[in-house]
Design goal:
By secondary structure, this protein is of the alpha+beta class. 23% of the residues lie in helices and 48% in strands. It has a 20-stranded antiparallel beta sheet that branches. The longest helix is centred in the N-terminal third of the chain and has 38 residues. The protein is elongated and about 70 Å long. 10% of the residues are buried.
């Protein structure tokens, strides 16, 4: 009995010592990372950094966190941010966001309001911290543009990413935004009439993306990995009676896509009317497009549903043999 008690005491002392060493190591690692960012020209500030959770957790809390990268124009301010990990599995991390924070992009500043926004992240047990898989969920999310005060809202957000076991730069990505509603100005820009409901009934995507290098700590510290190929299983939006779905494969060279996407549009005439109302198409081009698309839809057997291949080649977007617009350049800043 005395031996068993002694073994328990020794194990408790050793485990406590491990937690103290681990917590001090985590504190030093985060402080070093912030100092490295400042040396690189960032703004990287906290009013307090603490590691708690004895004896089984390393729970790191950043208070009054401010990060800004002048080279890219991105910045984030939060009253707190937490990274939670089990002491015996430190490469599996739970990230917890505050209910309110501010995000600045090269184009606009936004106020973010969320309910229980958090992510589960598993990374390689190495200094590169390459993402193996991650999920992000929020019970609600509101993104308000600082310049206009208009908000994009969703009642729930679900996103996930998982690295391919056979290709370390390939990632399966899923996204679902429930109850997505657009701000009035964007609705007007899209030509959306009052007959359309306030929110989408579906807005989701499932794709595999290949990148030029893995998503690891360098993706935050330096330049983002750039996509080299996309396999879109489905991207779907349903808004009232309007339905759009996309699927296909693209390769990207310096951000310029090559390949084919197939678009399926239900009630496509209303979508075309929206494009005309938003001045995205001239009246003459809209009339011509309606004639051609109507013929294609009737050939498919259902005049209200359109299945249309979109070809990307030589830097242009083609519908059949006709070039209709320059291909968009896909680049992550």
């Amino acid at each position: 009995m005395h031996r068993l008690l002694a073994l328990i005491l020794i194990a408790a002392v050793l485990w406590g010592g491990w937690w103290v060493l681990g917590s001090r190591g985590a504190d030093r690692a985060f402080q070093t990372w912030l100092e490295e960012r400042r040396t690189a020209g960032w703004v990287a500030e906290v009013s307090d950094l603490s590691v708690q959770g004895f004896p089984n957790r390393f729970d790191t809390t950043f208070t009054d966190l401010r990060l800004a990268d002048p080279a890219t124009g991105w910045a984030w301010d939060a009253p707190f941010f937490q990274l939670l990990a089990l002491s015996y599995q430190p490469n599996h991390i739970i990230a917890v966001w505050p209910p309110n924070s501010q995000l600045a992009t090269p184009l606009e500043k936004f106020d973010l309001t969320s309910a229980d926004l958090r992510a589960s992240l598993k990374v390689d047990a190495s200094t590169s911290l390459a993402i193996d898989r991650a999920t992000l969920v929020s019970d609600s999310l509101t993104i308000t543009a600082a310049s206009t005060g208009e908000a994009t809202r969703m009642s729930a957000l679900r996103a996930a990413i998982e690295r391919s076991p056979s290709a370390p730069t390939d990632y399966r990505i899923g996204l679902s935004a429930e109850g997505l509603s657009l701000p009035p100005r964007l609705r007007a820009q899209l030509g959306a009439g009052s007959d359309l409901p306030d929110s989408f009934s579906a807005f989701n995507a499932d794709l595999t993306a290949s990148f030029d290098r893995p998503w690891d700590r360098r993706a935050l510290e330096t330049i983002r990995p750039q996509p080299t190929a996309l396999t879109l299983r489905i991207a779907e939006a349903k808004w009232g009676a309007l339905e759009l779905a996309l699927a296909g494969d693209l390769t990207l060279t310096d951000g310029t896509p090559e390949g084919r996407l197939t678009i399926k549009a239900r009630n496509w005439q209303e979508i075309l009317t929206m494009a005309r109302s938003a001045d995205l198409l001239s009246p003459a081009l809209a009339t011509q497009a309606e004639s051609v698309l109507g013929m294609l839809a009737r050939a498919g057997g259902n005049p209200k549903t359109l299945d249309l291949p979109l070809d990307f080649k030589r830097g242009m977007l083609f519908i059949g043999p006709i070039p209709v617009a320059p291909a968009p350049r896909i680049f992550l800043r």
